Amino acid sequence: MIKKHNIQTLAEGIVHSYAQIFFSQDKVLGLLLMLCTFLDPVLGVCGLFAVMLANLVATFLGFDKTQIREGIFGFNALLLGMAIGYDYRLTPAFWVVLSFAILLAIIVQAWLTGILSKQGLPVVSLPFILTAYIVTLAIRQTQLLEVVNHNAYLLDNTFFNPFGVLDTLEEGTKSLSFPTMIKGYFLSLGAIFFQAKLATGVLVGIGLLYHSRIAFSLTLLSFCWAWVCIDLAGAEMHWLKYQAGANFIFIAIAVGCFYIVPSLYSYLSVMLLVPLTIMAHLAFFKLFSTWMLPVYTLAFSFITIVFLAMLRARSVHQYLQLIVIQYYSPEKTIYKSLSSASRYKNNLFKHIQLPFWGDWFVSQGHNGKHTHLGDWSKAFDFIILDSELKQYHNGGTEKEDYYCYNKPVIAPADGHVIEVVDYVDDNNVAAMDMQKNWGNSIVIDHGDNLYSQLSHLKKDSLKVQAGSYVKKVMLLHPVVIQVGRPSLTFISNCKIMQRWALKQQTIPYRTTC
Amino acid sequence: MEKLKYERPFIKKLNAGLMNKFGTRTEYTPHTHIDGVAVKELVAKYGSPVFVISEKQIRRNYQNAVRAFKTRYPKVQFAWSYKTNYINAVCNVFHQEGSWAEVVSGFEYQKAKGNGVPGNKIIFNGPDKTVADLELAINDGAMIHIDHFDELYELQELLTRLNKKARVAIRVNMDTGIYPMWDRFGFNYESGQAWNAITKIMASDNLELTGLHCHIGTFMLSTAAYGVAAAKLSDLAMNIKSRFGKIIQYLDLGGGFPSANTLKGSYLPGADIVPSIDEFAEVITSTLLNYGYKQDELPLLILETGRALIDDAGYLLGSVLATKRLSDGRRATIMDFGVNILFTAFWYDHKISPAQEFTHHTEDMVLYGPLCMNIDVVRESISLPLLNKGDQVVVHKVGAYNMTQWMQFIQMRPNVVMIDVNGNPHLIRNKETIDTLHDMEVLPDYLKKFEL
Amino acid sequence: MKLNKNLAVSETGFIFNPTSGDSFTANEIGTEIINLMKESKSIADIKTALLDKYDVEGNQLEKDVDDFMVLLRDNNLIQYER
Q1: Quick check: C33 contacting B, CB < 8 Å?
Q2: For A268, A420, B71, C79, which has the most beta carbons within 10 A of its beta carbon?
Q3: Percent of chain B having pLDDT more than 90?
């Protein structure tokens, strides 16, 4: 009953599981990494087995096919497979234990994802680490599996010679001659796949460079900076450079260009987080050495998750921009982010329409010196003028002579009417009502803390109630006039505010016509 | 010895008690300039009589009307009614201000096109649309307002033959509470005739009903009728929407707004009783806005105002030919313009001002035109100061209909001059000469010779 | 034609006919003509005098004075003599 589609999904899931280690969906990188794992055949077989089993189980259990295809279930399993395959001899018992370990990994992954994704946080390699701890601790108490000894450990096997790595390094330098730091970088790349070979690391590096120049540069920068930091910290910590190398590489990609839009600030964040990662790693190393458990990339996982949580908890989101849509390519992410910022920068503003039909003039604008002062400075007064620039016809002694008397007023944008004043008498020309100097007014709530107030409206002519919903351009009122000052009879006033009471402080806002 | 200035000897009996009901000085101020140009200069240059149009006043009227409507309603369009005055210069002033064109005949249509109005901005009204006219209108995409069923059938036939579609509206007549009801034009609303026409159009493949048109009267003195008209058209539009799902794009309320001329038989002068354009705007727009249209389905409001925009921008300058005393003692003054070029003298008591300074003595007189016909009376009774042969007068508010309905009878038609916004006069229509007449006539050969 | 002798004429052109009780107003020239008629001048003389005094054409004056006579008769200010 396995359809062709399902086979394709599985195949893609396998390749993407490898690529996911470097936060990528690039099939070329995935295949290259798969090849790299097979440079140590044992690890290669274990890894592939783990990935395939994980994807099958996840499909069978009914997890989201898209996630399976993206390799999300596979990459933790891959790391787990390689880790266990590294430690133990391949006996029939081994395969059984590995299978159950994979099952556990999937359960743990689903559980952790359920908790963390609600906060908008990733699980990174926590499922692998947690499962590996449980399995290691469990197996140690049994005789089920036979432990393998490795002469030189690049990773965190604490009860073997931590300086053994230097021997390897010395061997290596005899054949090639480029800076130790760079060699260390490639060795760390290889160590991610539990291999001590420089060649592996170089291949992985090429694959990473192919996938993303940004990611490659970040990892290199991060590793070198960590190298320098450790040097500054003290000579006795040299071993840290190799043991924790993978952490610096992963955190560079995660913080620099995967969960955050790459920018100068993201690069800066990576630099700042490297010393923190060092500290975390040292701390975890001390903590878990009690139980003789390797630290793997726990420091990276921990620092990444707490850093992202910190970013989400900000109230002002500046400098670092969390990714909304994951394109699995830092280059594409930057491009999309920049282009949408320039295309949609106007969408930050609500579209506010001027509250009338036809052509009106602004008789007093923002910071007008008559009545637009202080808190109420960002308001507009509107009047109608004829072709001779007069506000009235027939002498201007009656309020009906003024052009703007009794003209319709419309809502500037969608919103709810929250306050209405409709009982103030209309003024006659040149009379000033100093107490109720707004006259009849309407306040509308447009959402997102934006309010508008329309004042100096005609008495008893309101067409909406408080609480009613108005759409943009809906008829509200015939206007009228009232006075703020003798020279400014007959104006209609419109203000945009941030809090809703009448007479609140105004803010400047743009209108679209 | 220097001779003194002469004035005609004059004696008038004083009547105690009975005052002139309008006071004493209504029409007596001399009108020596129009838009800053001296009347005497215009007469000297262009002859007498001569029509003078003020472009500044046209633009002012138009902008006023637009402002009255646009500040009350979101979508408004004016269309200049060509039959009111179709001199190209006048039409183009309106088009420059943004007005479309409204025509009621083939030649008006051609004039509009000739002025450069795009086909889809010409409204074609009227009961007389020949097949050729319709074909032209269809090809230009003009807005055809159908007047009667014969036209509807003809149009459908034509469209099928040409294999084209046309955007149409129907003219609707209705009872708006005024007398007389113009039920000779369009389809009747109350009897269901209009709905009948609408269903026919909706059922037709090649007609698209885009609007509804009505023109309820002329020189309307009550605004309420327009409210009724707007409501009845809206009723049709709503029914069309609910029955056919079709949204009507525009409502054309036609024209009929009055100017400030005084109608014959009216007790009060026109300026006192005529409602302003703002009042019409208020009634029409509030009816439409409150009718219940959805905000984005509000139809475009089209107005075909003619008279109200141009009447007070037109003046007629004339001269006195002679004065007489009639047998019953009344003074009669004979002018060089009469009902031949001032057709609206049949409808209005035009305000007429002397164009020069005068004394305060006035005389009740009757004004006749130059024609040798008894009906040629410009004013039955008007109080004017003493006028002599050769004095000029200015007739006010003649911009509408005179320059389209004038007759080529006994006298040929005079020059028409327009004064632009900077005060420069321009000749916009040449006066007719004997050649104008002769160019038209064809004399059969057998009549060329005679002996007396 | 004889002007009613009892007419009261003021300088400003106010004329009062005590016989009928009617009052009239006349302009400067009209007043002048009436005054000349009170002095029993003939029409022809009046016309000549006016031609000399005022800037007017003979035909115009002729017509206007004749017309004025008609007005006076209409207002019962002069009587025709048979």
Answers
A1: yes
A2: B71
A3: 79
* Whether ipTM exceeds 0.95: no
> What's the pLDDT tens digit per position in A200-236?
888 899 999 999 999 999 999 999 998 888 888 876 6
Asked if the Cβ–Cβ distance from A403 to B60 is below 8 Å, we say no
Segments forming the whole domain that contains residue B410: 33-52+313-436
Nearest to B255 by CA among B306, B299, B212, B301: B306
Residues 306-345 of B with CB under 8 A from C: 325, 329
**Chain A residues touching residue B295 (CB < 8 angstroms):** 471, 473-474
- From the list B7, B11, B361, the residue facing C71 with the nearest CB is B11
Strands, E assignment, B82-160: 100-103, 122-124, 143-146
Residue A303 has pLDDT above 70, yes or no: yes
* pLDDT band for position C26 (cuts 50, 70, 90): confident
A403–B295 CB contact, under 8 Å: no
Partner-chain contact A386 B295, CB within 8 Å: no
Q: Looking at the complex, report in whole angstroms how far the Cα of residue B77 sits from the nearest Cα belonging to chain A.
A: 12
Domain count, chain B: 2
B contact test, residue of A353, A407, A490 with most B CBs within 10 A: A407
| CATH at B398 | 2.40.37.10
Q: What is the CA radius of gyration of chain B?
A: 25
CB neighbours of A507 closer than 8 A, spacing ≥ 6?
A378, A496, A497, A498
Q: Map out the domains of chain C as residue ranges.
A: 2-76
The answer for residues whose C-beta is within 8 angstroms of residue B253's C-beta and 6 or more apart is B214, B215, B226, B229, B230, B233, B284, B301, B302, B303, B304
Q: Which of B60, B73, B285 sits opposite A387 (nearest CB)?
A: B60
Q: Do A357 and B295 touch (CB under 8 A)?
A: no
Domain total of chain A: 3
Residue B103 lies in a domain: yes
Q: Per CB distance under 8 Å, which residues of A are interface residues toward B?
A: 356-360, 384, 386-387, 403-404, 406-408, 471, 473-475
Give yes or no for C23 touching B (CB within 8 A).
yes
B416 vs A366: which has the higher pLDDT: B416
**Tokens 């089993």 found at:** A53
pTM of the model: 0.67
Residues B175 and B269 in one domain: yes
Residue A155, domain member (yes or no): no
Does residue A82 sit in the same domain as residue A26? yes
Q: What is the CATH number of the domain that holds B245?
A: 3.20.20.10
Are residues A368 and A268 part of one domain? no
| Paired tokens of B188 | 């009747």
Cα dist. B118→B125, B139, B164, B308 in Å? 16, 12, 19, 25
- Co-location of B197 and B294 in the same domain: yes
- For residues B251 and B301, the answer to whether their CB atoms sit within 8 Å is yes
Chains that touch B (3 or more CB pairs under 8 A): A, C
Do chains A and C touch by CB distance (3+ pairs < 8 Å)?
no
Domain extent for A324 = 165-348
pLDDT in tens, B199-237: 999 999 999 999 999 999 999 988 999 999 999 999 999
Give me chain A's average pLDDT, please: 78
Phi and psi (nearest 5°) for C24?
A: -135, 165
Is there a single domain that holds both residue B301 and residue B202? yes
Q: Are residues A23 and A138 in the same domain?
A: yes
Considering the domain architecture, whether residues A114 and A2 belong to the same structural domain is answered as yes
Q: Where are the alpha helices (DSSP H) in B219-358?
A: 224-244, 270-273, 277-289, 307-310
